[in-house]
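Comment thread on ticket #2218

A.B. wrote:
> Attaching the input chain for the structure job we discussed in standup.
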Amino acid sequence: MVPVHDDKPTAVYLPHHAVVREDKTTTKVRVVFDASMKGANGVSLNDDLMVGPPLQPPLRHLIMAWRMHPISLSADIVKMYRQIKISPMHTDFQRVVWRDDPAAEIKEYKLVRVTFGTASAPYLAVKCLQQVAVDEGQNYPEIVNTIKREFYVDDLMTGCQTVEEGFHIFEKLTELLSKGQFQLQKWVSSCDKLNKRIQACSGTNIPPEEKKDIKLDSVMKILGISWDLENDELNIQYNLILNKLQLPRDG
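C.D. wrote:
> Ran it. Output below, let me know if you need it in another format.
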């Protein structure tokens, strides 16, 4: 975010508010930008943005493929959108007003990174992620397909046959994505030995205060599904709504 020093008639100002999630171990407060808010002309920023084609497998395919591995392995990218800069010619379409103190003067800023809430953000983020595989993947041929086929936006859902293979994925994927300034966190698997080996490694990128999120006997959320690590089971919660059934009386 940088200050605005000029006035442009084509600028767009994004409404924003905070969403607090106490159940999150990492980002408990997230800023949400409403790029679908329509302006005086009845058009929003999202109305004019191109969303791009899908670049990753459908979620149901990804989950089913993930469950085929003897050892399931997952992680996610730290603040994925915020690692990607947008063109300077487009930053005026991401303006905000802000002040650090309620008594301070309101100032104008523009966001210089891909912003959550804009229609094009998922495509841009995934395209940049996959471009790292294109640009740097020649030295990591066995990891390229993992990036292209086993991510759902910023969530990695992969797996392996053995602990050694899983640790190899951890090391090489961490190394490859770091070349694009993408940092992986919250590594966890269904294998106790692999979990301990990854967590013991100095390159896990899991700060000490966040390691409470990795518990071998815990149930964690992955793409909205509860994953029981101890039993390696997926649990889906739902509300069953039963309509009253009226039966006619005999006679």
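A.B. wrote:
> Thanks. Noting for the ticket: The CA atoms of residues 7 and 92 lie 9 Å apart.
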